[in-house]
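During the reporting period the student researcher (J.K.) took over the structure-prediction task from the postdoctoral fellow and processed the backlog of single-chain submissions. One of the processed entries is reproduced below for the supervisory committee.
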Amino acid sequence: MEAIAVIVEKTLKKLPQAKKIKEQMLLDLWPEVVGEAVAQRSCPLYIEQGQMLVLVQDSVWAQHLSMQRKNIVRALNSRVRTNILKDLRFQADGRVIH
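J.K. obtained the following structure tokens:
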């Protein structure tokens, strides 16, 4: 008997909008992967051509997260079982409030 995760994965691959669904899953997992402290100071907006745009509280957070980008990309892709996310781009925006 197949695990539900395997069945869902196989079904997703057959859907024409599978890539968009996986991109949304990556965005939704941001707080869980980066942790509460980072999630409160950042907000992922969208994924375009494999790059996720993330608004961050200020340039200090942008620099801090830039140094961790490879680990974050790897963790997100691993959780969704994909490799569509290639990079993160951080943009300072003092309005980020959660």
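The committee noted the following: The two ends are 42 Å apart (CA to CA).
J.K. will present the remaining backlog at the next meeting.
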